[in-house]
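User: Sequence in, structure out. Go.
Assistant: Echoing your sequence, followed by the structure tokens.
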Amino acid sequence: MNVDLNELLDEKLVKFDLPGNTKDEVIKSIGVFMYEAGKVIDMERYIEGVFQREKECTTGIGNGVAIPHCKNDAVREAGFALVKLKNSIEWDSLDGKPVNYVIMLAAPDTEDNVHLRILSQLAKNLMDEDFLNTLTHAKSIEEIRRLFKGGC
């Protein structure tokens, strides 16, 4: 069952040229955005959950993209942030290359595993070179919305 990424897209969670020099800095910054957008109710527990997931296996999927994520009870409602970094950073990516685009997910600890559906839809879209190129070069929320309407 597909997830409508456009429906989950929250303008408060789309950032361009986010400063940050390390994976930890970026995850913490995005955790703040998730909290401020009302997606998470306990920012510290959410961020710790993302760090725990990173310890299990890198979320740097390659092609300059990382998809850190967390499913726990600190999350009020499923969502994701789209963040273009000001500078590329090391992320222990599968292809050994730095990351310049982060898609960070938050999912409540529920039986429906919505995060797996979101991850699956994103992975499917990111395998499409045109989708990936358009997403990582988008300069406005409108461009991203158009992409998700066409790509999802």
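User: And one key feature?
Assistant: The chain has one domain: 5-151.
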